[in-house]
Design goal:
The protein is mostly helical. The chain has a single domain (33-231), classed as Intergrase catalytic core (hpI Integrase, Chain A). The protein contains nine helices and seven strands; from the N terminus they run ββαααβββααββαααα. Strand 6 (153-154) and strand 7 (161-162) form a beta hairpin. Helix 1 crosses helix 6 and helix 2 (45-57) crosses helix 7. The longest helix is centred in the middle third of the chain and has 20 residues, at 99-118. The chain is globular, with a radius of gyration of 26 Å.
Length: 267
């Protein structure tokens, strides 16, 4: 079968020196602590709880949606993230600020689960292979999604009608609306909360290896992108304008933009 080094079975020696192009690095958008407070204050209920986990734990959106009851450990105050990016599991913290709201939320979800069981539903989608090994596990409370959908849906692959986790657009739209309500003039997405989590930890003095582990990054070079905020601008360099090379007082009385003045009678 032809591969990238051959076409129609003929070797292409000139390909040997080519290197795959790399995607240019982009500086992530990060919210300040004050902006995060305003954004979270613009959310409520389950949406506030999900956004708090994205920021307070550094979860990706899909990792938050796929959380199951058994992955929340209140005693050890930790969350086990299953099948994260790259198919890896990791352990991260459970913020104290969400413990009581999360417990109250799970009480309501348990009532919903019991109601589903009484209605002849109540099963949940399980990882491959687990259904054959534990056929009743799909009805077990421990395997239920922490953030279930508002209504039943039909699985396109199996045709089974069940309650899945909440649709990702629910939080995506809520976060964007909260950013507008909070007056944040930045491009804010759910992933911005994860970026802010990492940056604020580094600002708080935590070492980059710890942040790498909490984020689930394979390489520390990926985590290094968040150190851009710690440079406080142009790599920590103090401008000569701020070092005595400029005016000692702001030129408040000086018109610094005379070119924008329009004379009377000008067309």
């Amino acid at each position: 079968m032809p591969n990238r080094r051959s076409v129609l079975g003929e070797p292409l020696a000139w390909l040997d020196g080519l290197v795959r192009s790399k995607r240019p690095a982009r500086v992530p958008t990060v919210l300040t602590v004050g902006e995060m407070r305003r954004l979270l204050a613009s959310l409520d209920g389950m949406k506030w709880l999900m956004a708090s986990l994205l920021y307070g734990v550094g979860l990706r959106l899909r990792e938050c949606l796929k959380l199951r009851v058994k992955d929340i450990d209140f005693e050890y105050r930790q969350i086990i993230v299953r099948d994260g990016k790259g198919g890896k599991d990791r352990v991260t913290m459970l913020p104290a600020a969400v413990i009581d709201p999360l417990k109250a939320h799970l009480v309501r979800v348990k009532v919903l689960h019991d109601r589903d069981l009484a209605s002849g539903y109540g099963d949940v989608e399980l990882p491959e292979g687990l259904v054959r090994k534990y056929p009743r596990a799909a009805y077990d409370w421990a395997w239920k999604f922490v953030f279930p959908a508002y209504r039943y849906s039909t699985c396109p692959r199996t045709g089974v009608i069940r309650r899945h986790h909440v649709f990702e657009d629910v939080l995506i739209r809520a976060v964007k609306q909260a950013a507008r309500s909070a007056g944040i003039n930045k491009h804010v997405s759910c992933h911005t909360l994860r970026h802010s989590f990492a940056t604020h930890l580094l600002e708080g003095g935590y070492d980059i290896r710890t942040v790498q582990e909490l984020l689930g990054h394979k390489d520390v070079s990926t985590t290094m992108i968040y150190t851009h905020v710690l440079n406080k601008g142009g790599r920590g360099v103090k401008s000569p304008l701020d070092s005595g090379g400029g005016a000692s007082q702001p030129p408040l009385a000086r018109d610094v933009t005379p070119e924008y003045r329009v004379s009377a009678g000008a067309s």
